[in-house]
Write a structure and sequence with these properties.
The structure is a homodimer of 223-residue chains.
Chain A lengths: L2 H28 L2 E6 L6 H12 L5 E7 L4 H7 L5 E5 L8 H7 L9 E5 L16 E7 L6 H4 L1 H5 L3 E5 L11 H11 L4 E4 L8 H18 L2
Parallel strand pairs in A: 1-4, 1-5, 2-3, 2-4, 5-6, 6-7
Chain lengths: 223, 223
């Protein structure tokens, strides 16, 4: 990169950081836990949100912000589950930024429990942009292969949890859950690791319990 | 984006375009066909190159440039097949640029037939950067889902061919080859579509024939 390019990038990241801190602060005061989901395209973020909605809906209020380059498809899938959803179409941009979340702020109900943000499907760029979330979760689906943490380090280093998705396929794929967990923990020892399948439901309860615990902790920290 | 950001991006893309045109021109004169492979992480680019090397090696000389954010893993896999390979580690950058290919130019043997470039695993950013290739191929693996062309349009609009990979999994996945082909062709009617599995070998011969035909065309155009 040229010096000019680096300066523009630093400006962009610096201003994003400030907006993100402000969003996190406002959400914390309202007792809303925000979760930023990161992954490659097709790792199963939307289907996971559909499944989580089934488990959380009886006792908690959730809403979803969907980030995509084009189409309203993912927001429509979430709305079909009776969950409020907003679609951000980035029109070419490869990641969400905090200011895009900030623009939706007036529409977000104050009595929510969970705000899930599904980032643009991209294992690289979204890792550089704090959206004001309390938890960042990176999904890695078994068909993507178990060599990804070291090849795409930033998403794994900056996340709070690693969700290994599509576990129903693991028996027929060359994917070693132990290998990937070990590599990911070497890079980021505080990662909490979940193995799940949105297709057969394995592991969904454990993940929703993790989010519920984090919600209670947020509220007791800001009581 | 601010006006300053847009200007920096335009500079970057403009200078990339010139370098790419120069690379393409030099390769054409030498009769080397360059192929740029684009996809999400884990769609099977490296394994496809391993399989292609088995089919092409008896009659053609190929080499591979591997783009990754970190690690030499992919270049090592290709070298293990007896194929020359160079690893570009972008150190965080989400795509390859033409100048990175240009720097390797002195090392590339003049008597090659095929130069394959495996881009960073990212279905978004690499689509904006011409690397001087003659053919751009986007891979979409069946586990990623059949809704991807409209959600990540640029990679599909700028490619010459669509390679639907991991076809061996199609019977157990919700992936409709006809739907995805139809959507992709609506966006880009000149796309040539291949369906293949590097695991069981289906469709590999058809794809290698396509590259061989393109090589002959390049050489007759520049004879």
């Amino acid at each position: 990169m040229t010096k000019k390019e680096i300066l523009v990038l630093e400006d962009l990241l610096g201003s994003n950081k400030k907006i993100a801190a402000d969003i996190r602060n406002q959400l914390s005061k309202k007792g809303i836990l925000a979760v930023n989901l990161l992954s490659s395209p097709g790792a199963g973020k939307t289907m996971l949100l559909e499944k989580l909605s089934e488990v959380l809906k009886p006792d908690y209020k959730m809403a979803v912000i969907e980030g995509d380059i084009e189409t309203e498809r993912d927001a429509e899938r979430i709305r079909a589950k009776g969950i409020p959803a907003w679609q951000i179409m980035t029109g070419g941009a490869c990641h969400l930024e905090a200011k895009m979340i900030g623009r939706l702020f007036p529409d977000i109900p104050a009595d929510l429990d969970f705000l899930f943000i599904e980032n643009v499907g991209n294992l690289v760029c979204p890792a550089s942009f704090d959206l004001g979330e309390h938890l960042r979760c990176v999904l890695l689906s078994t068909p993507e292969g178990d060599d990804k943490p070291k090849k795409y380090p930033k998403a794994f280093i900056t996340s709070d949890s690693l969700i290994i998705s599509k576990s129903d396929l693991v028996s027929i794929l060359p994917f070693d859950i132990e290998r990937v967990s070990k590599e990911a923990l070497e890079m980021n020892p505080r990662l909490e690791i979940f193995v799940l399948s949105s297709l057969n439901g394995d592991g969904i309860k454990e993940l929703s319990d993790y989010f519920i615990q984090a919600l209670h902790k947020l509220r007791s920290d800001h009581a």
